[in-house]
Amino acid sequence: MAGPRRDADIDRIRAASRRLVRELGFMRPTLAGTDLPPSAVHALIEIGARKSMTARELGDILVLEKSSISRMLRKLVERGELTEGASATDGRAKPLSLTAKGRATLGRIDDFARRQVSAALGAMKPGARRDLAVHLGAYADALKASRRDQAKGSLHDADG
């Protein structure tokens, strides 16, 4: 079976995506001026944005396996960044929320990211930065839709 046809736009987007990953620091063992790995930084951001969520919800958002989420959350709880509560409706679900230490860490992460984005936008021409958020959001949405479509296809293939 042949792969997607060669397309200059695809090659440029792939190259830009790789550069973004590197420039945003995802190749380093820690992220956003913390001593935390990228997945833990993203966990704090997502939990902080929602105030409380379960490990399962977090795994769905971060697109990580249950075992990876469990290990990461255990470390964040041990560090004092997160606390696990008890669900009123499901004894297996443990709502996660940030501790005071976690909120402080998230504040530093947000400050770091705002400075990073602000500096990058300052280096761009106004015309180039004008629609950046819209186009990045559309690309992220399209990647998510494509991933979900592929997952559905895999399920149908397994049934077939």
Q: Please, could you describe this protein's structure?
A:
The protein has 160 residues and is mainly alpha-helical. The chain folds into two domains: 16-123, Winged helix-like DNA-binding domain superfamily/Winged helix DNA-binding domain (Arc Repressor Mutant, subunit A), CATH 1.10.10; 126-160. 66% of the residues lie in helices and 4% in strands. The chain has helices at residues 8-23, 38-50, 55-62, 66-78, 100-122, 126-130, 132-159; strands at 82-84, 96-98. A two-stranded antiparallel sheet has the order 1-2. Helix 2 (38-50) crosses helix 5 and helix 3 (55-62) crosses helix 4 (66-78). The chain is globular, with a radius of gyration of 19 Å.
Question: Mind sketching the topology for me?
Answer:
Elements: H1 8-23, H2 38-50, H3 55-62, H4 66-78, E1 82-84, E2 96-98, H5 100-122, H6 126-130, H7 132-159
Antiparallel strand pairs: 1-2
Helix pairs in contact: 2-5, 3-4
Mean pLDDT: 88
The level of helicity is 55-70%
The CATH architecture term of the largest domain is: Orthogonal Bundle
Instruction: Classify the secondary structure makeup into a structural class.
Output: mainly alpha
What is the CATH fold-level name of the largest domain? Arc Repressor Mutant, subunit A
Low-confidence stretches: none
Classify the beta-strand content into a percent band.
under 5%
By DSSP, the count of extended strands is 2
Q: How many structural domains are formed by the residues?
A: 2
Q: What gap, in angstroms, lies between the N and C termini?
A: 18 Å
| CATH superfamily label of the largest domain | Winged helix-like DNA-binding domain superfamily/Winged helix DNA-binding domain
Look at the structure and give the CATH class of the largest domain: Mainly Alpha
Q: Taking strands numbered 1, 2, ... along the chain, how are they ordered across the largest sheet?
A: 1-2
Q: What count of helical segments does DSSP give?
A: 7
Taken in chain order, the helices and strands follow as: HHHHEEHHH
- Structural Rg: 19 Å
Which overall shape is indicated by the principal axes computed on the Cα atoms?
A: globular
Largest sheet, in brief, is: 2 strands, antiparallel
